[in-house]
Design a protein that fits this description.
Layout: H1 3-11, E1 14-24, E2 28-31, E3 38-51, E4 57-60, E5 64-67, E6 73-76, E7 84-85, E8 93-96, E9 104-112, E10 129-131, H2 133-136, H3 140-153, H4 159-175, H5 189-192, H6 196-207, H7 215-222, H8 226-237, H9 241-259, H10 264-270, H11 276-287, H12 291-297
Parallel strand pairs: 1-8, 2-7
Antiparallel strand pairs: 1-9, 2-6, 3-4, 3-5, 3-6, 3-9, 5-10
């Protein structure tokens, strides 16, 4: 499994809320910030979304917008309107004129992730991913949007399950979307996977997390000198190679502890520690508590 797939699997993304959002005439609403990834898919019509410190962003039919942690924003029929504060809900909402056919329809909502490793998401995404219909229409992403749009307006059995699974696929497609390269992507895995040499290194580490990797060995995989590799890895991933490996090992350990199905010695062996004692010491040093205490504190998540 490639590194991006491994991390997405560990995060266990799920479309927690997905609801129709529609509007007619002139309207504007303002949402407060909330610490959850939010998304909008425009099914018909157009609208504008406004974030503090950014130019107004126009959304039109077929556009996809993904926010890793949702800041305060306004959604309106056109810039310059007074926006009414509203609270997020999990039911369909209609803005503006309540009678007549809506001239704007979107599917909006949020994703949830396994919380013990949710911080990994921040290393994958820029502040905003906007995939315009003009770019995605001829791609698989565009075809997924079309299928999702069809499912949203139909009333077939199993509709909710199909919509949720399609949204989860769209999330992964958005993470690897080629146009994200034009955004200011923070240091992290997504940046590293764009560099052929670093991508080989990341794949090797994820394929054998138990190995006692050295910087020299990893530099050889990247076909670079040791010093050049260490410098590029740090600039691109935001940490040293062995530190990245240690963080990934701890992410796997936290997930295993939350699931509660493996003893400490097995977890230790699977992530490259020689004994349960060595693993416990490393875990306590990084997390500030023993593995057993961490597992008990997160029992409700399993």
């Amino acid at each position: 499994m490639d590194p991006l797939s491994e991390i997405i699997t560990l995060l266990r993304p799920s479309a927690a809320v997905s609801k129709p959002i529609s509007g007619r005439g002139q309207w504007g609403v303002r949402y407060r910030a909330h610490d959850a990834p939010g998304f909008t898919i425009v099914l018909s019509g157009e609208a504008w979304v406004l974030f503090d410190g950014r130019e107004p962003l126009g959304l039109t039919q077929g556009d996809f917008l993904l926010l890793p942690t949702t800041p305060a924003f306004s959604l309106c029929s056109q810039p310059g309107l007074t926006c009414t504060p509203v609270e997020p809900t999990d039911v369909a909402v209609r803005h503006g004129e309540q009678e007549g056919e809506a001239d704007f329809v979107a599917l909006g909502g949020s994703f949830t992730f396994e919380q013990v490793n949710a911080s990994l998401l921040l290393s994958l995404l820029p502040n905003l991913i906007h995939i315009p219909a003009s770019e995605g229409r001829t791609s698989r992403f565009g075809r997924l949007i079309e299928l999702l749009s069809e499912e949203c307006v139909a009333d077939h059995p199993g509709k909710q399950l199909i919509v949720q699974r399609m949204l989860e696929v769209l999330l992964v497609e958005a993470l690897r979307w080629r146009s994200v390269e034009s955004e200011r992507v923070p240091v992290g895995l997504l940046n590293g996977m764009r560099d052929p040499g670093l991508a080989r290194v990341l794949a090797a580490m994820h394929a054998d997390v138990r190995a006692n990797w050295t910087v020299a060995e990893l530099a050889g995989i990247a076909d670079m000198s040791r010093s050049a590799f260490a410098a590029r890895f740090g600039e691109t991933l935001g940490c040293a190679p062995i530190e990245y490996l240690a963080r990934w090992r701890m992410a796997l350990a936290k997930d295993a502890l939350v699931q509660g199905t493996k003893p400490l010695d097995r977890i230790a062996d699977e992530i490259g520690y020689g004994s349960a004692s060595a693993f416990s010491t490393a875990f306590r040093k990084r997390l500030g508590m023993a593995p057993g205490r961490f597992a008990r504190a997160n029992e409700w998540r399993s």
